Amino acid sequence: MTISGAGIRRMRLLRSMKQGHLAELLGVNQATVSRWERDQFILSPEQAVKLERVFASPPHEAADAALKRLVEDSVRPAHLICDRTHRLLAASRPRQAEWRAPLGAFLGRSLFSYASAEIAAAEQSLEERGWHAGRLSSLTLDTGANGNALLPIAAGRVTWERIMLSDGSAGRLVTTIG
């Protein structure tokens, strides 16, 4: 399981869990969890398996609402989509500011038709990378511009993080990082 420090923090917060509690469940100290979340330490394969078990417990609808709030309140350009259908579930204000139409024009609709060539290519490679099987939960990629006036995508770097939703489906958090 590959997960970023931000992903560990996000999943911990979605479960209303303190660092100390997560540390106790994983058999480490709180400082180790803090260092993971700041990407100062890398999880061992054994720790990653334990972390996966902790986070694999079924989330509940309140967690989905909390995730939506976290996305909407993010200071970074970010949006949450359904991992399979690419339907938009939530977007941060900085992400919405990039778009030339209001959020309502995109909410609940697939954003895949706006994908750049690089995003489409990365999407095609997800199955072989083990994304849908859960072997890969985070991916960083460089993307070119899509040339679309309504929902422009600028050239840059994005991170995709796969997050399980309460209905058993997966969401994908898309965050611009550069």
What does this structure look like?
- This is Transcriptional regulator.
- Residues 8-62 form the HTH cro/C1-type domain.
- Helix content is 39%, strand content 17%.
- With 178 residues, the protein is of the alpha+beta class.
- It folds into two domains: 5-56, lambda repressor-like DNA-binding domains (434 Repressor (Amino-terminal Domain), Orthogonal Bundle); 61-176, Beta-Lactamase.
- The protein has a five-stranded antiparallel beta sheet with strand order 2-1-5-4-3.
Put the structure in a nutshell.
Helices cover 39% and strands 17% of the residues. By secondary structure, it is an alpha+beta fold. It has a 5-stranded antiparallel sheet.
Rg, rounded, reads 16 Å
Counting structural domains, the number is 2
Poorly predicted ranges (pLDDT <50, ≥5 residues)? none
Pattern of helices and strands: HHHHHEEHHEEE
Percent in helix: 25-40%
CATH topology name of the largest domain, in short, is Beta-Lactamase
What structural class is derived from the secondary structure elements?
alpha+beta
User: What is the end-to-end distance?
Assistant: 24 Å
Strand residues, percent:
15-25%
Describe the global form: globular
Assembly type of the chains comes to single chain
Tally of extended strands? 5
Query: Architecture of the largest domain, CATH level 2?
Result: 2-Layer Sandwich
In this structure, how is the largest beta sheet organized?
5 strands, antiparallel
Helical segment count: 7
What is the CATH C-level name of the largest domain?
Alpha Beta
- Average residue-wise pLDDT: 89
